[in-house]
Amino acid sequence: MDPIHGLLYGLSRAIEPQILILGFLGCLWGTMVGVLPGIGPVAGITILMPFTFGMDLTPAMVMMAGIYYGAMYGGSTTSILVAVPGETSSIVTILDGHQMAKQGRAGAALALSAIGSFVAGTFGILGLTFLAPPLAELAIGFGPPEYFALALVGLSMSSFLSNASLAKGLAMAVIGLIIGTVGLDIVSGQPRFTFNNMELAGGLEIVSILIGLYGISEVMEMMASKIRPQIQHEKLWNLRRLLPNKLEWRLSIWPIIRGSVMGFFVGALPGAGGTVPSFISYAMEKRMSKTPERFGKGAPEGVAGPESANNSGAVGAMVVLLTLGLPYNVVTAVMLSAMIAHGIFPSPLLMVRSPDFFWTVVASMYIGNFMLLILNLPLIGVWASLLRLPYRWMTVFIVLFCIIGVYSIEYRSFDLLLMALFGGIGYVMKRVDLPAAPLALAIVLGPIMEKSLTQSLIMSDGSPFIFVTRPFAAASMVLFFVLMFLPLIQRKLGRRIAPVGEVEM
Amino acid sequence: MWLMDRFSSAVLLAFVAFYTAAGWSLDTWAKNAPGPGFMPRLLALVLAVLAILIWVQAKPSPESHEEVESYSKREPLIIFLLVLAYVFVMPQLGFPLSNLLLVVALRRMVEPSSWRADLAGAIGAVVIIHLVFVQMLALQFPVLPVWWGE
Fold first, then answer.
1. Domain ranges of chain A
2. Do A225 and B110 touch (CB under 8 A)?
């Protein structure tokens, strides 16, 4: 099916009431978790994921995708209004967005953010529509060595980009892979680390672990931190003048275009997602500006560029998931585990084997993008008022949703225990500065990596040289080793590359 | 942070020792293919190296004063213990009753208001949750306590 026909077919399915409603609910919930500080798209999807198990995969995926890009839209609201990022990709929006709000331009900042997100989201989906088929065709030739090497690069990149040191990020990734070794061995069927416990024979339930790591631990973090969003100035809430003025438009058009293009391609890289493109966009706009001194003081480009970049980056990450079946950030890892739970293993053949699923999800993204524009512009006041919700009530409902979500997977108390334990572990990890993202990614990638490593070594009669004799695998392994030795090279050169969050402002 | 790093490193090394011992009996290699113990041993080795690296990299810097952030230890611990207790209580008391106890406990221990308001709010929350998830979505939660009807 060519992209145009695929898209038209997808649109005919995407306007079915069930898919439309679930897509809308996904956008609604996504915007809400994006607006509320503390709960990001990962927690938003993981909490709701078990409820999707009773649905068909297509509407379930439409809803999860809606949550993902809904959170990208919503995340900017708190950054602009109260200088607290709704999620990580909106951190950089605080710098100029909140300054604009302080100057009485909150409405304009929110509008630039929403319109930029819409343009970028549409560009990203166009990219997904037309680039996914050739990319999938290219990837059909990939075998286990290529998959192992690509997964290895994804994990190392995620560790590299985490705010902690590379050693800590990698250690967490290895712990995630270790978690994946619990249960029956994929080749011999021999039990590993089950301690004669039947509950452990099927492996540790990934969703319970993710909800613990991102749901319960986030609640613990929210309650530990005494900081609550405060309405500091009445001017911030002046949302009547929603349209940017001529100058703000003029300054924002090119940052939106640049952010959209760059964000899509960077977002498709391992570990990048929506966060890295937003930081790159800010640094790029500041560097390109003739008046960089305005940045940090309410420059509209500092809002429009990063907000566009994070949205197209989110779609870019989806390209890799839907064409290669590899999750390169935690959100897509969660989506992959949902797809596996539904019995679909994404691969380059997904478009051939399940065109209905693929094109409906893509087409629903176009519709979702329109829904989000409407949700985020005229209704912005409603989202802003969410910030007035008492934290203790939010805590109660998040904890209850986590419990219900986990228990409804298999109705086992053991999964609840797992969730509670990983909630505690996730919280301690935050306190001792150990990143959770590489761990979460590795838990999902672990079985894929072990399977492809085993298959590769069987193919080569046990020789590890199979990873260097196949061009794509070899190129990926070179990239992996470059990443591993980059800190050493930087130290030798006396320089370092700033991780996410430390980009020059 | 360096003390935390050393602590993390020690915990990771202890975990490596436990993991290696637990997987000791697994075969590393079987015929021409990796055995069930191959991946675990490889991962244990890599983790041990990384743990040592974290230990070595953790050095106190004389100039920097460790930033003391205002974090409360009480609330997160309470939430953790309450969720843990819920795991054991729920199969005994059933879903609505244990939810009620959890919500009341959460509300009383985390930023409480008056008893009446907390109790009323908790009952409201439990009723909504029960209607949506048990009645509407037909999730199979144990509704009644195990001793009910014995």
1. 3-492
2. no
pLDDT (tens digit, 9 = 90+) per residue, A168-177?
999 999 999 9
Q: Strand, helix or coil at B34?
A: strand
Written as one string, the DSSP assignment of B71-107 is B-SHHHHHHHHHHHHHHHHHHHH-HHHHHHHHHHHHH
Q: Is the dihedral of CA A422, A425, A431, A434 positive or negative?
A: negative
A301/A293 Cα distance (integer angstroms) = 12
3-state secondary structure (DSSP) of residue A37: coil
Other CB atoms within 10 Å distance of the CB of residue A198: 9
Length, in residues, of chain B: 150
Q: Hey, what are A273's tokens?
A: 């997602």
A192 sits in which H/E element: strand A191-192
Looking at beta carbons, which residues of chain B come within 8 Å of A427?
Answer: 76, 80
Q: What DSSP string describes A240-284?
A: S--S--HHHHHHHHHHHHHHHHHHHHHHTSTTTTTHHHHHHHHHH
* Token reading at B146: 């195990």
Number of helices and strands in chain B (H, E): 5, 2
| Chain A residues 210-229 with a CB less than 8 Å from chain B | 216, 219-221, 223-226
Alpha-helix runs per DSSP H in A140-274: 144-161, 166-179, 198-201, 206-211, 217-224, 246-267
Q: State yes or no: pLDDT of A165 exceeds 90.
A: no
Please give the structure tokens belonging to residue B61: 């810097």
ipTM comes to 0.91
Nearest chain B residue to A427 by CA distance is B76
Specify the 3-state DSSP secondary structure of B29.
strand
Tell me the torsion sign for CA atoms A325, A331, A335, A338.
positive
Q: Quick check: A484 and A158 in contact, CB under 8 A? A: no
Q: Which B-chain residues 85-144 have CB contacts (< 8 A) with chain A? A: 86-88, 90-91, 99, 102-103, 106-107, 110-111, 121, 125, 129, 133, 137, 139-141
- Name the percent of chain A lying above pLDDT 90: 25
* CB < 8 Å to B107, chain A: 392, 396
Question: Would you state the torsion angle of the CA atoms of residues A138, A141, A143, A148, taken in this order, to the nearest 10 degrees?
Answer: -20
